[in-house]
């Protein structure tokens, strides 16, 4: 430890013997430390230590006045927390027991050797400086922990907000999915009703055509024209109605599908629409007025174009678009 560093370290002296106190003062300054005191009684020492606290105190156990060195040490510990080294020429066990309670850094026995005093002071100073560094390190560590704790709490609160938002969004999404399923059911019901009506119209048209072939001379030309028009637009009318309603629910589906698979034909796109809605092969057959076999072939060809194997559900695959 250099003299320059030692000069910043202040040692208080409490000793009622004038000769010893002056000797201590000279030695401490010679060792390179600054001195606070010396003081011969507890009152003067406490008053000065409160105004200008030293870093270490050399305390005589037996001093003049109503308060001895041990009592003064108790008061210093309570109010100032300054480390203390006791000076004593006594080996009275009772006094030593009292002194031990104040947790001193050590003891110097009178008469003391200058070298022993210097070594004791240097070791005490090192311990005090180390303790101060540890306190600063602990304080810094606590600040870091508090900062990280604050950040962690902030992150937890942020995640709770995100989680709450996701729960709310999931609830809304669940509600929308229910509404969508309901609309799908409505579309299916509507499509099937349209199909049933078209089937009746188809049968009626066929019956009229058969009658027309049997009784050509009895059929009015306008009626024949109406029958032909009805025959030509039955399927188109039914599927146009379906496509309009499908676009309302699955907006942009066909565009996204064609962007991914531009080689799909209009009929294959329409088949994808029906499969996306979980229509069975039989349902599709009824709606398009095509045989079940032809729908099965169309589905097989569609799988090849989409690159979908037999173990992948087509409706699940199409739900990605």
Question: How is the secondary structure organized here?
Answer:
Blueprint: H1 3-7, E1 10-14, H2 18-30, E2 34-39, H3 42-51, E3 56-60, H4 69-79, E4 84-88, H5 93-101, E5 106-109, H6 114-214, H7 221-249, H8 253-260, H9 266-276, H10 281-288, H11 292-306, H12 314-318
Parallel strand pairs: 1-2, 1-3, 3-4, 4-5
Helices, by number, come to 12
CATH topology of one domain: Rossmann fold
Q: Strand count, sense and closure of the main sheet?
A: 5 strands, parallel
Q: What is the arithmetic mean of pLDDT?
A: 83
What is the fourth-level CATH superfamily of one domain?
Response regulator
Q: How would you write the strand order of the largest sheet?
A: 2-1-3-4-5
What can you tell me about this protein's structure?
The protein has twelve helices and five strands. It has 321 residues and is an alpha/beta fold. Among the domains are: 110 residues, 3-Layer(aba) Sandwich (Rossmann fold); 72 residues, Arc Repressor Mutant, subunit A (Orthogonal Bundle), CATH 1.10.10. The chain has a five-stranded parallel β-sheet, with helices on both faces. The chain starts with a helix and ends with a helix. The relative contact order is 0.05.
Task: Give a quick summary of the entry.
This protein has helices spanning 3-7, 18-30, 42-51, 69-79, 93-101, 114-214, 221-249, 253-260, 266-276, 281-288, 292-306, 314-318; strands at 10-14, 34-39, 56-60, 84-88, 106-109.
